[in-house]
Specification:
Layout lengths: L6 H12 L4 E5 L2 E12 L2 E10 L17 E10 L6
Length: 86
């Protein structure tokens, strides 16, 4: 996980290394943000995805629960479907 607020912040270095992504999905809650980017080649997938953490740890009546979650992170996953490894 990377402690950054959006996929766009880390996207450019990955594009320089791996070329244009195979798939890009916008965040359904905010169309200006990307929620998922991946590269697929020969059974290997590299994925960047936006995760929101924090709101589930606060009680329902907490002021922190309202609005944005307290932390956004970008998860990086690499796996090979032919080897069934991640």
């Amino acid at each position: 996980m990377l402690d950054v607020r959006s996929v766009q912040i880390v996207l450019h270095p990955f594009e320089k290394l791996y070329g244009p992504p195979t798939q890009m999905e916008k965040d359904p809650d905010d169309a200006s943000e990307l929620s998922l980017v991946n590269w697929l080649e020969d059974g290997t997938t590299l994925e960047l995805s936006l995760s929101r953490l924090g709101s589930e740890v606060f009680p329902k009546d907490s002021a922190q629960q309202k609005g944005e979650p307290w932390l956004r992170v970008v998860c990086i996953r690499l796996w090979n479907s032919d080897l069934a490894t991640s």
